[in-house]
Specification:
Blueprint lengths: L5 H21 L8 H30 L5 H4 L20 E7 L9 H4 L1 E8 L6 E8 L15 E5 L6 H6 L3 H10 L7 E5 L20 H16 L9 E6 L1 H12 L4 E7 L19 H6 L2 H7 L6 E9 L4 H12 L5 E9 L4 H19 L3
Parallel strand pairs: 4-5, 4-6, 6-7, 7-8, 8-9
Antiparallel strand pairs: 1-2, 2-3, 3-5
Length: about 375
Amino acid sequence: MGLTSDNVLVAAILLAVLLFVGTVWLWPRLARRGWRSFSGRIGLLLATQVVVFAAVGLSANQAFGFYASWADLFGRETGEGVVVDHDGTGGAPLRVVGTQEVKVAGGSRPHVGGQIQKIEIVGRTTHIATPAYVYLPPEYFQPRYRTRTFPAAAVLTGYPGTAEALIKGLHYPRTAHELVRDGAMRPMILVMLRPTVAPPRDTECVDIPGGPQTESFFARDLPDAVSAHYRVGGKPGRWGIVGDSTGGYCALKLAVHHPEVYAAGAGLSAYYRAPLDPTTGDLFHGNDELRNSADLRWYLRHRPAPDTSLLVSSSKAGEANYRETLEFIDLVKSKRPTRISSVILDSGGHNFNTWRREIPGTLEWMSGRLHER
């Protein structure tokens, strides 16, 4: 059974309850002196605590989507996710491998609730292969819209994150459906995936010298593959990108570096330069230009201001990026034609609950920016 399986979580909870009840029941018998009783008490307490810890961890992973599988959890997912195309022809860059309904009224009927499709993408230029989910709004399936194209937004998780968390934990498809229903935004295709397209490495959406070309994947391969398969408008300004934490940094960077592709980029609880730590490894290999470009504040000070719209979010209490976010806003305000908006909460931590409060306004904002151009 998979790490994110409900059956695994239920089994862990039941085992924890049984061990707790068993400890209480057997404790009088184990209160005697002697090494057997002493070992029994230690064994029961240790086993109960381990199982309780496992149940809490599994529950947290279900809620926040930290790891997608047991191999991901234990660091055994070491493949770079690279596909080598030997003959230059290859297969389709995008393949649908499954569908699921949106958790809304009438969700079993695509023309009423829309549809979520699980896909596999292979980058034509970068050869990066990654799974993703695509939310298609109800209008996509309605006859009167059959010749219409739609704007699209890439939606990124944090690190390590799972794409499923964007559906189950952050409720992007359901929120988009409700906003369109209420007239707050126009129908939009959402392409949901994690920025960790070369697991387990955190590439920070950088084109790593001699390594995964992650920025190029998101800037070229992803939009090209999706636009070739779905009815996404081909004119400039029809793509946006949004993410939280690491995904938020990637969203801002891709909009700043590639305004010809992404007309809007929203970073929820984002930071503004790529970190270097054990999860990232050496991202730049001594390339100072690449290192500087990965610092958004440096880039905006030393490069022509991009014609794109940015949104950043933070909280006055609970977020570590609050001061940096205010400084970033002040910097962008002086860099026309770049436009800046913000969501600043009075209180909110670096977590799903905070981002769920920010997502409706963010999607509404993005819908307006993509239709302005």
